[in-house]
Design goal:
It is a single chain. About 35% of the residues lie in helices and about 20% in strands. It contains ten helices and eleven strands. The strands form two sheets. An eight-stranded mixed sheet has the order 3-4-2-5-1-6-7-8, sandwiched between helices. The longest helix has 17 residues, at about 1-20. The chain is globular and about 60 Å long.
Length: about 325
């Protein structure tokens, strides 16, 4: 019943945008949106960072606009990074905007604001932005975009194909027709994506479909990761020691939309995973959490704890 009502509301909302009853506003420059059609993590944050990096290399003045879920004051506009250094902390920014600011230091401005039209106009006037990348904006139709990219998780593309609250869809699958490009993520964690491609084509025959694999790029000690974040706040360069593999028993934890994908990724890459712990997405870690994690790791016989960059910014 509630899923039917939710689906009807989203259909009506989309129809009002298509009939121009609800207005979409241009930010005045090239605008790329990256989003999902489902709730939960689909691996869009690395794609946002990649697109921003590519545009920056082409000489664009890039700004990433993000809502910033889980931050302390969701109604406040926060300039997370001015493109050179990080100007706030993870509590004010939110974990994903802070992670993006760290990844894109020296490459892109990052702003957290629920009103992306207002934030975009402000950024363009203040910084001379020539290109915007919208994070998690497939449903944010108030902003007009030149390219609409949708990420779909190969391990659980659409759940039971029902909209919230009975399923994981943010809107009915028919709305994939709005996408200009679709990226199937985590393809390496499934056997085959051909059937998923066929399913997507039922709703959108013209968009390009890309297939992406998730890989662990490197391992960094937490103290070095934190030092890197601090150097980004002070504009001083701090190099990190990076490794590809940890030859010991590990305990993994995270606060992600799809935590099991992180754990499965570790197993696939032959980490000796002895135990795991998951927290709600965007969870803010406390000292008690950390002490409990260390105790759990000790009890499991692990010699190291592993987590993600999104989690590390909060530790």
């Amino acid at each position: 019943m509630f899923s039917w009502l939710y689906g009807a509301i989203t259909r009506a909302r989309n129809s009002l945008y298509e009939k121009n009853v609800f207005k979409s506003y241009s930010l005045g420059v090239l605008t790329v949106s990256v989003g999902n059609i489902t709730v939960g993590g689909t691996g869009k944050t690395p794609l946002v960072a990649l697109i921003a990096e590519v545009l920056a290399k082409k000489g664009e003045k890039v700004c990433v606009l993000t809502r910033g879920y889980g931050r302390e004051n969701p109604k406040k506009r926060v300039l997370v990074s001015d493109g050179e250094k990080i100007l706030t902390d993870v509590g004010q920014a939110g974990d994903e905007p802070f992670e993006l600011a760290q990844k894109l230091a020296g490459k892109a401005i990052v702003i957290a604001d629920a009103n992306r039209v207002s934030a975009g106009n402000w950024a363009r006037e203040r910084f001379g932005i020539t290109c915007f990348v919208l994070d998690d904006a497939f449903q944010h139709r108030k902003v007009r975009r030149d390219l609409d990219v949708v990420c779909i998780d190969a391990t659980n593309p659409f759940g039971n194909e029902k909209t919230l609250p009975s399923g994981i869809l943010r809107e009915p699958l028919e709305n994939l027709k709005r996408a200009d490009a679709i990226v199937i993520t985590r393809a390496n964690l499934t056997k085959d994506v051909s059937s998923l491609k066929s399913q997507i084509s039922k709703y959108n025959r013209t968009c390009q479909i890309f297939v992406a694999e998730n890989k662990i790029s490197d391992l960094v000690k937490l103290e070095e990761f934190s030092a890197k974040a601090q150097s980004a706040q002070s504009s001083e360069k701090q190099e990190m020691t990076k490794d590809k593999k940890l030859e010991t028993k590990v305990f993994a934890f995270c606060a992600l939309g799809n935590p099991n994908n992180f754990f499965e990724q570790l197993r696939q890459e032959k980490f000796e995973l002895v135990s795991t712990q998951k927290f709600p997405d965007h969870h803010s870690y406390t000292q008690k959490d950390i002490e409990k994690l260390v105790a759990q790791a000790d009890q499991s016989g692990a010699k190291a704890l592993l987590t993600t960059a999104k989690d590390a910014v909060k530790l």
